[in-house]
Write a structure and sequence with these properties.
Blueprint (H helix, E strand, L loop, with lengths): L2 H12 L7 H12 L3 E5 L6 H10 L5 E5 L3 H13 L4 E3 L6 H12 L7 E4 L1 H4 L2 H12 L3 E6 L29 E5 L4 H10 L5 E5 L7 E7 L6 H12 L6 E6 L2 H13 L4 E4 L5 H13 L4 E4 L12 E7 L5 H8 L9 E7 L1 H17 L4 H23 L6 H6 L12 H4 L1 H17 L22 H7 L4 H25 L7 H9 L10 H4 L5 H22 L7 H18 L3 H20 L5 H4 L11 H22 L5 H13 L2 H11 L6 H33 L4 H23 L3 H17 L6 H14 L5 H14 L10
Parallel strand pairs: 1-6, 1-7, 2-4, 2-5, 3-4, 5-6, 8-13, 9-11, 9-12, 10-11, 12-13
The structure holds adenosine-5'-triphosphate (ATP).
Subcellular location: Nucleus
GO molecular function: 3'-5' DNA helicase activity; ATP binding; ATP hydrolysis activity; DNA binding; four-way junction helicase activity; metal ion binding
EC number: 5.6.2.4
Amino acid sequence: MDESTIKAALKSAFKFDSFKSELQQAAVTEICQRQHDVLVSMPTGSGKSLCYQLPAVLRPNQTTIVFSPLLALIKDQIDHLNALKIRAKSLNSKTSKSDRDALIADLKSTQPLTRLLYITPEQAATKTFKSLYDNLVKFDKVAFVVVDEAHCVSQWGHDFRPDYLKLGELRAKKIPFVALTATAGAEVTKDIITSLKLADLKLFKTSCFRANLYYDVLFQNLIENEFLHLKKFIVGCLEDSQDCGIVYCRTREQTEAVTFKLNSLGLKARAYHAGLKNTERLQCQEEWQRGDSQVICATISFGMGVDKATVRFVVHWGVPKDPASFYQESGRAGRDGKPAKCRIYYNRGDSRAILFHLNHDLGKAKDKQSRKIKAENALKSFKKMVEFCENSDYCRHKLFSDHFGEPPPKCINKCDYCTDKKAVKKMVEEFHVRNIEYNTVGLSVQSEDYSDLYGGGRKGMEDFYANETGSDSGEREIKARNESNQLIQKQFALRRSAQDVSQKTVEKLFAKHSRVRAPASTSSKVKGLTLATREQYLSKMVEVLHDNYTKCAEEQIFDRKDVEDCAIDVEYGVFSANTNMTMYRSSIARIISAIKRSTDDNVVYEALVSFAPKPAKYATLTDLFRNIEKEQRQQAKTEVKGAAFQTAAQVYQVQQTFKSEGMGEKKRDLANLFGDESDDETAKSKEENNEKKERKRKHEDRHRRHEKKQKTGGESSIDKEYEKFVESVESSTNKIKKNKLKKTEIGNLVVKLLTPAYVEKRFESRDTFKSTARNISHALIDKDESEIKEYVEDFLKKNDEITSQTAL
Ligand SMILES: Nc1ncnc2c1ncn2[C@@H]1O[C@H](COP(=O)(O)OP(=O)(O)OP(=O)(O)O)[C@@H](O)[C@H]1O
């Protein structure tokens, strides 16, 4: 068939002036000759469909049979072709009887009008289809047999479909096979060729590199507000009104949650998942196609066959399933050839959950060879993705080139790594440090590591503590230690060359990030103990303590950080009291069991009862707010206890008091309000009386001790200790009195006074707000409450806008 005929059909049937690429043209030309089987391996969006649709149109009186994996995909193709007035039909379980009869009648006629017949591979196995196919072959009415998404034929493929394997049985003389895929690596290609019995094959393959797509990976746990971050990213990607994007989520719940967040942040988003009714799904997809919604938050059920040119971003909210799926899903971006972005917001919790399930699948598949291979492949491919996100030290596009057996592309600046290696390495390092901080050691995660995800699970953490002296826990210890070391080795390797890293180095490096006390002396104090193990035990303790507190405490005064502080104290107690690993472990295990028992008995665990929460350090803004919140919670408790009933006037009076008075005053006013004290004066004189009484008591005490000393001729050590204690208490009380307010109280007060201005956006940035609060607090260290208030009010009056340059 000559070129001009082909070009004319391109224009008349498909309305295109030219081919999308030379490869597309070459593939079409080759297929039109009907001399060879053809395998087209081209990236998503490169126009593979035209490679068989155009030759099909050019075969009058014959029909091209197309095997395609999904009804939705088939529907899209048929709609598209019918819109071009090309007769395409499908035969499936949903085809009505009359349509089916009409279609079969056409196909059995001498000159069928149906140019393309779309079938799922499952349908191909039915008797109806077989007899129809035999009839078509017999009368030489089949132009081509096309296998779309041919990677489904391979167990190595991410979408293996057993029915695809049977398609090779349809081979008949003189009927060329055309296989198309976007995601065939070397192994998959081999499988396609053997399973479909492709012979005398012509291969049309382009590089998988899509230079218009920019890839990057971010870690959710390093982002302060991940949804706001996502929103900003989306807004940055959408320039034109037709622009849109996809956020792929792992679960239906996630699609709903992300949609909700994005909508509340002002974007037009819709959730799409298989749990929706068909009509809802269709409506959702159509809205997105039309451009009525900018973002579709979908599970991976969305997208096969989705052909929208103006997708400007594809986000994976969590880790994609495997490199091939990632390539295909992210490849839905930038099909118009213009720049688009593909981003993973990685979340280790998510990837652990997936690994858990994949390991579980593998465990279940142990007897069935085919299932086992599939499960092994799935696990191996997923681990590649985890590695890609957590430790990538290479170009992001290399993931794909490796997968497709190609040399790495010249990316230059089409991914975060090639654009700024140092920044990516730093981010990865920070991610790992954070994970060490929160106890997740190890990179090569195994199934048992996820037990903590499921609160012990069937096997899980219960074993971890129940059999402390058993080999199981010992093995885990060793494993944790090895993994921790591996991690550090890797971190060192990222910086310079790999080197031997001792446990001491590990501790030194991570001491400042750990929560436990005296981290740097871990291994020297308790033989065999590692920092990572202590952190793990601590996390477990926090978990059970928190559970105990939330279930058993009547009033929830402590927040999670308080509970963690309490656990840190308890762990430190155990750490200081033991010198070897077995003893340390047994003590921790005993405590954890005791906490659990308390929870079962509905009793708050003793360490929590006696725990006095420390005021949060006000080094960070979060700490400051925590303090305020805690005070408010405690305040609320006082109010609720005292107030059986409040009149509106009383409420108003309390509110006024809150507005006009500081914290110390406020408590007294509340007490007045509820009748504990008759008035300020009474309170004052009561306070004075108390002070007098206290002075008298101390004096008598001193006197008694002095007499005793005289009698015994010297001070006992207990007396000395007591004296010291009394002195230290007195001196700290005096200090507090002298400073009037404690440092934390000053910090709280300053933040409280500055907050309205922050809400009004008078501060240049959050950082400016923090540094201003810090600087003012430092400057006013010896001032009392009213002086502080006066200063801050004056400062705000003088400065409408506060920048880093604003002088105090
Ligand atoms: N010659 C051409 N000129 C202009 N546009 C074309 C041409 N051929 C195909 N296209 C368009 O390119 C887009 C992608 O085509 P197509 O859906 O066939 O890609 P694909 O390679 O099959 O992708 P996927 O693997 O995701 O299914 C479609 O919008 C199609 O109409």
